[in-house]
Amino acid sequence: MRARRLGRSSPVLLALAAVLALIAACTAGGGGSAPAPPSSGPPSTSAPALSALPPGAVPGADWRITDPGPEHAVEGFADRTSVRPGEPVHLFVSTTAAHFTVTAFRMGDYPPTGAARVWVSPPQPGRRQADPVVQAPRNTVVAPWSPSLTLDTAGWPPGDYLLRLDAEGGARQFVPLTLATPDNTGRLVVVNAVTTWQAYNRWGGYSLYAARSGRFADRSRAVSFDRPYQAKDMQGAGDFLIFELPFVEFAEHSGLPLGYATDVDLHADPHLLDGARAVITLGHDEYWSTAMRAAATAARDRGVNLAFLGGNEIYRHIRFEDTALGPDRTEVDYKSFTEDPASRTDPLEATQQWRDPPDPRPESVLLGNFYQCNPAQADLVVADDRNWLLSGLVRNGDRLPGLVGDEYERVDLRVPTPRPIEVLFHSPLTCRGRPDFADATWYSVPSGAGVFSAGTQYWICGLDPGCRGGRSAPVVAAITTRLLTAFAGGPAGAVHPAEDNLGALGIDHP
């Protein structure tokens, strides 16, 4: 289950002045013996700036959709989830209008709207394309459409983009696109969780959860990127607006060196993380392939920091297949070992949950904490105010209202768990009638890497005073600023080694 909120320019930047004031107060007498937090400015790095906009771009342009118009009045998809700057992108658009335009917005630190308009197409001829096709036996929906136009991305800086389709008559929808950073040396790599967006995408009547019949048994066993994202709730933008955009805007304002990629890139490119300082996954990054997991683990073990800013990561095991439009365009997940034909031909690639037999590989091995339940709603409760991320900002027992949910994780020693590990927030809750805790964690490994796991899907929404952050947004922003700044400086676990506190919290046994 996932929280939903329609996209607008998130006011996360309003929290940043409060962050600086809060940090200053913590170090100016009121913070006791708390160590000074890291500077909020960017550290020295060899990573060059890559965010210069092309000539004619308009920072602060209005990108929002207030009235999308009738369903299917205009919709589309791209033939790539990501490209590098200068590579072409083919758009497939269906509309009931005679003409449409495409406007490309780079999302980020562009007050007052959080977007910059970088390109606008001339009017394009519109047409209603073919109905969706449901491919048996896996109930995979594809849009058998012809390409409508090709975008030239030369001069566009890397980053997260929304392509807005504007139909004659006023209907609008988005198509998301990532312009991947060509070289992530020295960068904090922000990973868009497009595999999770696609898993929940119900366009054409099917997702990995739903079917036209309403029966779970009739759901898709494989979903295709060769179709639009559904218009309902997220206006064609996948889950970018709620689970990712507030962090992108916040991180860009920090001035730290960022890289951009999708999790399909993490799967396909074994050199994606060469030289990177950190990998940041966002609010809901549930669907991981073997190659994705291996890449993140290998990066950690050579000193690359990891941050998991959600509450349900690395839960579903997927694999990819190609389509006529390109590689890795079909995402396979049977959610069952025995039902998946790969169980008989390539058992390690069968798509049961990562934690399930016959070869359990629980997410806790990489996250530190372990997914538990949904839906839950609770306050974040401070458990370790001496930790470097929290010191001087909060005290044990302090509550950050409403920041645990919908899905959450906790330390569970019945499964493999890295040690030493620190629980920073230990938050009591009830989920489906069962009392439990949500845990935000920090651990370090011999390579010097540090790993932070928020343990809640609401962490990123907590950066935004207008979403769930409220008065707590400056605290969440200050913690996140410390984390990112330390990550940009190199292996953060070497500077801030974890001090195990499970015994003090009474959770040092299964």
UniProtKB/TrEMBL annotation:
Signal sequence range: 1-24
Composition-biased stretches (Low complexity): 42-61
Pfam families membership: DMFA2_C
Protein name: N,N-dimethylformamidase beta subunit family domain-containing protein
Keyword field: Signal
Keyword flag Signal: yes
Disordered as annotated region, ranges: 30-70, 337-361
Residues of the N,N-dimethylformamidase beta subunit-like C-terminal domain: 101-467
Keyword Transport: no
Amino acid composition bias (Basic and acidic residues), ranges on this chain: 337-347
Organism in which the protein naturally occurs: Pseudonocardia lutea
